[in-house]
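Input:
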Amino acid sequence: MNAPSNHQSRYAYFRAIRRGVYAIRPRFRLSRRRRERASQDDILAALPSGVDPTLLIAAFAKTPTERLETMRSAALSLEAMRAR
Amino acid sequence: VIPDYEALLSALDGHEVEFVVIGAVALVLHGSARVTRDLDICYSRTRPHLARLAAALKPFRPMLRGADRDLPFTLDVPTLRAGLNFTLETSAGDLDLLGDVTGIGEHTAVKRLSVVMNVYGRDVRVLSLEGLERAKRAAGRLKDLADIAEIREIKRLRGD
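Output:
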């Protein structure tokens, strides 16, 4: 950064555009692809998703109301099992 | 208490409350195999809609979830204006009211990322898969990673 010479840190990756406004020098900017990737993407890419597509395909055959009622029945069953 | 989704959604829609279903129920409506115990909605914070929201929920005797039973609580417009997110226990099940969704913003922004689905015979706004993925990325919890994986699989199977 083109800070005054008495400034304790002079970082090379900033450039002052005008008073109080700085820009990251082009060679230190993240690529567009890298910017659009979230930190979780690397984790998601490394781990098996564990998603069972057959459950999703079965859900697609239902209406949204049926999907919600199926989930509600499952939740009620779990609740009943916990209560035993 | 597992929510009576039909009762809650019908009351909200019947009172013309501006809201978007978000969270795990939105995922389920898109086809997810998740199981959840509550209903999350993002609500409009304009004064007329707050009055409608309070009126819609009044019959369900909303209380703050986990709070002492003796704690006086009335869900009305001043209460809604004084807060943003409320985790409620109602006679129809647990309900979370969110004035702002992390990663997306307030109701107007959430509504822009919503789709209309017919649920219990009513047209209900539900956060889109794109919106859900954005919210899950921003939340960044372990269970959100599992949800992102499922959202991507739903998109892949649908050919999105």
